[in-house]
Amino acid sequence: MSTAAPRLTALDALHRSLGATMTDFAGWDMPLRYGSERDEHNAVRTKAGLFDLSHMGEITVTGPQAVELLDYALVGNISTVGPGRARYTMICQEDGGILDDLIVYRLQGQEAAPAEYLVVANASNAQIVLDALTERAAGFDAEVRDDRDAYALIAVQGPESPGILKSLTDADLDGLKYYAGLPGTVAGVPALIARTGYTGEDGFELFLKPEHAEGVWRALTEAGAPVGLIPCGLSCRDTLRLEAGMPLYGHELTTSLTPFDAGLGRVVKFEKTTNEGRFVGREALEKAAERAEAAPPRKLVGLIAEGRRVPRAGFSVVAGGEVVGEVTSGAPSPTLGKPIAMAYVDAAHAAPGTQGVGVDIRGTHEPYEVVALPFYKRQK
After folding, report:
1. The pLDDT value given to residue 111
2. Residue 233 zone, left/alpha/beta (φ > 0; ψ -120 to 50; rest)
3. Are 272 and 71 in contact (CB under 8 A)?
4. d(Cα 66, Cα 270) in Å, to the nearest integer?
5. How far separated are the first and last CA of the chain, in Å rounded?
6. Contact 231/214 with Cβ under 8 angstroms?
7. Would you say 243 and 336 are in contact if contact means Cβ atoms under 8 Å apart?
8. What is the pTM of this model?
9. How far apart are CA 249 and CA 298, in angstroms?
């Protein structure tokens, strides 16, 4: 049985020249780390880090009924997204299970032209999302286009990122709000500049043509060197998002959970005005909302270790000799200096400060403190 060769980003040769440790991620060869994961993590928290995120899946939706299609296909109310703004949302199955979490950008176009939307899916689910949107587009005057090869995606994250990017762009970064995007030039080439982020820090994502990626990466590296910017891999991206309490598909979000099970019921909007309020999964999600209100499902909580042993996804959370939950993500936290985890825990044991909760780590019940998420919040 032959396996397909991993896909390479436009920055592949550059990563290798920087000595990156590469890894297969969702069929892509991606940099895991360049040097020390801890140094990369701390650079993003205190200075700035540079990421290649070109494995993310970009899907463009255009046409007169683009917004009607997205309102029908996704759980969010996309018709309320203004030009140049972005929305965090999800695409669900008919039974309410989460297929993926997404960011949808409404691109700034001509006033009279129909709206154009950029849907950004997780790398592991990009094909699934593309197939679902294509299937759900039947009957709508809208086009779903696979633009995964049309974009490279570079992110600069951390407190120094606004200053670094300002030196390379004509765009009004001060006017760019969180969860927004605007067209501009970066290092002389056109880019969509977004401000969403997945690290808990301020920062920007740059969508650009693959052939421009290397030049922009080098320009950012040069501009950021005096303030401590360094290249960062997927490993520190995971510890950064974990500290910030941000869910990762396949861990905190799966097809066996609805947004209400995941504590993210707020992304589901039942009061849509398009399509007479119809959207895929509506009936199942209404029932899930009722269930969650009547008897709260397991809650997503933070756990901080009292010892040094690191919990991993799938480990059982225990209390009084009973299994009361399951770890979804765990890692050493460079910022807290202790192992941390996110876990789904029975409501009776989910309140911050609950005593007697532990994690079963290879047969030993290690004590953990239950805390509210996130573990880390930046000072604004």
Report:
1. 65
2. beta
3. yes
4. 19
5. 52
6. no
7. yes
8. 0.96
9. 17
